[in-house]
């Protein structure tokens, strides 16, 4: 996901986000790194879930659903966070720039006024009033330019999200059920006889 800024020299800010799409059509944010809980499927496991791999819902507009959810939910959230963080940074820079340049402008304005009085009094000077006034004006122009640049930096807008890839997640329980159905069925049985249940659980009853 990309977020661009108005100033041409500001590089886009990108982030990698994940989306969970379900067979029923619902979607949700996938968290920061859901792939850490997954592993590549083995060849023998692929045969066990061949039907799920070619399920009809996967042949539909899965990419369109992912993009629609990203645009509706993830992009606004990401954009708001970037705007909040960048606005705080820009506010700080603007305060510092204005404070520094305002001090320099005030100094050169005051010095130009003093030099003008000294010129009228006929005193010799190393720098004349016109030069001091020009310096003050250059600082004013620099302040206006910097404020214009900061205003452009506040113009943050979202670019279209880019789909990088997709993966089908097969539940581990499904693989176990397909690979060991007999063992799971035997383990799931429940006897009405308490002695049988005790023996099956490994407990010995003393009469």
Report on the biggest sheet: 3 strands, antiparallel
N-C termini distance = 70 Å
Number of domains: 1
Individual helix count: 7
Structural class: mainly alpha
The radius of gyration is 35 Å
Q: What is the H/E string? A: EEEEHHHHEHHH
Overall geometric form: rod-shaped
Strand sequence of the main sheet, in spatial order? 2-1-5
Parts with pLDDT < 50 across at least 5 consecutive residues: 196-207
Which percent range describes the beta-strand content? 5-15%
Number of strands: 5
The helicity comes to 55-70%
Mean pLDDT: 82
Write the layout of secondary structure elements.
Blueprint: E1 2-5, E2 13-14, E3 19-21, E4 27-29, H1 43-48, H2 50-53, H3 62-120, H4 129-153, E5 156-158, H5 172-179, H6 181-187, H7 194-201
Antiparallel strand pairs: 1-2, 1-5, 3-4
Helix pairs in contact: 3-4
Characterization of the model:
The chain has 207 residues and is mainly α. The protein has one domain (2-171). Helices cover 57% and strands 7% of the residues. It has seven helices and five strands, in the order E-E-E-E-H-H-H-H-E-H-H-H. The chain has helices at 43-48, 50-53, 62-120, 129-153, 172-179, 181-187, 194-201, and strands at residues 2-5, 13-14, 19-21, 27-29, 156-158. The strands form two sheets. It has a three-stranded antiparallel beta sheet with strand order 2-1-5, with helices on one face. Strands 3-4 form a two-stranded antiparallel sheet. The longest helix has 59 residues, at 62-120. The protein is rod-shaped. The two termini are 70 Å apart. The relative contact order is 0.15. The model is unreliable at 196-207 (pLDDT under 50).
